[in-house]
Amino acid sequence: MSNTTVQVIKCRAAVAWEAGKPLVMEEVEVAPPQAGEVRLKILFTSLCHTDVYFWEAKGQTPLFPRIFGHEAGGIVESVGEGVTHLKPGDHALPVFTGECGDCPHCKSEESNMCDLLRINTDRGVMINDNQSRFSIKGQPIHHFVGTSTFSEYTVVHAGCVAKINPDAPLDKVCILSCGICTGLGATINVAKPKPGSSVAIFGLGAVGLAAAEGARISGASRIIGVDLVSSRFELAKKFGVNEFVNPKDHDKPVQQVIAEMTNGGVDRAVECTGSIQAMISAFECVHDGWGVAVLVGVPNKDDAFKTHPMNLLNERTLKGTFYGNYKPRTDLPNVVEKYMKGVSLFILNCASF
């Protein structure tokens, strides 16, 4: 269905008119998809802390009015010119980053950081014409990270839409659009713990729990959760965490505590908080010679990572990751299939939240 045969759709959306002010349910007009775009009917959407962070607009350039939301599942309503991998009726997940398929990153087996479609939190328009597809009585409404799923209909670049198994429950797999893949992939694709190894997970929020699930799937025998909130340990047990450390309970740096617990350090560490101190601790708690630390959390813009160079020279490895190193269009359908086959229980366990 080309964009010459579809019309503007009027629907409801939760609009943020000002930073930190309650969202307002409004009737918005959603324009047809242009070339390379897809219009989705959003059936389920969830809330990520990133939505809250940019809604608060603390330390960022405010961009309002805006429609937030980026963890969602829906059905393709129409497609723009040139879109061939999607058609109306397909079940799909929109993702805040994309896969154009043509740039060096997309062609690399080692990267998922598409030159064209990687996340841009300062962009409030579509990339091909710098215009919004949302409006209220003629006033343009800004997009958010190319998804804006707090709307019954949204327009997304086709490279940011993953076609998935229509039998997958959209109310469950929608959370794969962001946090779950970010944590799960950080462990499975980047840290790559070996069976029987030890893994420390810093931060037991949704991303950290997904990272712990990745360690469980990988066969790690010791999964140590590190968090300032001790009550999180009980829930974390369902995701494979079998030991817990609260830094506030100790009078020495937590990396030293973990090193003493594990005879010199853990084999892998995954940091999921965004705290610069947690990042340093995660790196310094891995074992010399083979330890790998993976940074997932996003730090404040003025933070600086500081550690002694000998920690690197002693053959510890520090890595970063973006969206768990998953390519959205290529890899996300496979992650959904693994869930459908029961490989990962993460989404089922999320019912405990």
From TrEMBL:
List the GO molecular function terms.
Answer: alcohol dehydrogenase (NAD+) activity; zinc ion binding
Domain Alcohol dehydrogenase-like N-terminal spans what residues?
A: 35-164
Provide the alphabetized UniProt keywords: Cytoplasm, Metal-binding, NAD, Oxidoreductase, Zinc
Has keyword Nucleus? no
Name of the top EC class for this enzyme: oxidoreductase
Q: Where in the cell is it found?
A: Cytoplasm
Q: How does the record describe its quaternary structure? A: Homodimer.
Q: What is this protein called?
A: Alcohol dehydrogenase 1
Organism lineage: Eukaryota, Viridiplantae, Streptophyta, Embryophyta, Tracheophyta
Encoded by which gene?
11422713
